[in-house]
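User: Show me a protein chain along with its predicted structure.
Assistant: Here is one chain, sequence first, then structure tokens.
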Amino acid sequence: MDTKPFLDAAREAAQSAAAIINHYYRGQLDVARKADASPVTVADVEAEKAIRSLLTTRFPEHGFYGEETGRSQEESEYLWLVDPIDGTKSFIRQYPFFSTQIALMHAGRIVIGVSSAPAFEELAWAAAGEGAWLDGERARVSKIDALSRATISTGNIGTLARSDRWSRWGQIVSSVDRIRGYGDFYHYHLLATGRIDVVIESDVNILDIAALSLIVEEAGGRFTDLDGAPIDLETTSVLASNGLLHSAVETAL
């Protein structure tokens, strides 16, 4: 498969979204609430419309699943997965941990991932079998192979806190070198570039993590849910690592 046209389009769509997001960032925004009580702004909606327009015009035979505009009804072996502003709460509160996530799934397998962070001016991307990149530099995970020397970052761990795993998580906290809570896209960018070693989340959806899962894997890492299952459309938790630490954390939890 020649993935270049898909990657080029995803990067172009991310740039279009970034222009819209930057226009609204730090401005006065009306905030609405969706059915699930999560916030949404005009920036979310306009950014997704721009992405959807570009991708569906370029690839009219592809399906589309967006955080704000929903999923197209037609069946296709290709499905774009888009969250125009992953981290809307951060965006509203005017701190920079938000991003645009664009991924392409082919026959159930993620083959393109683009993660754009406008406030950081970072762009990460990957294509299946072709490696991962951050701002033009090849991304590679760390070689840390002991939890005692590892840095772990968490985000969205409410479900973890309410589960039997919570006490086991406490044991991990006491055994590693550093615990951080970067959250959203940022700790995955750090993981893919070898600056932290493990990410744990327990309250996510596929639109949050699809692109990031490919970026981490193409950087040499491993990306599953907390039970060790592969990522799919129903995934709600994450254990992502440099690969060397994956089994140790999974066992500990």
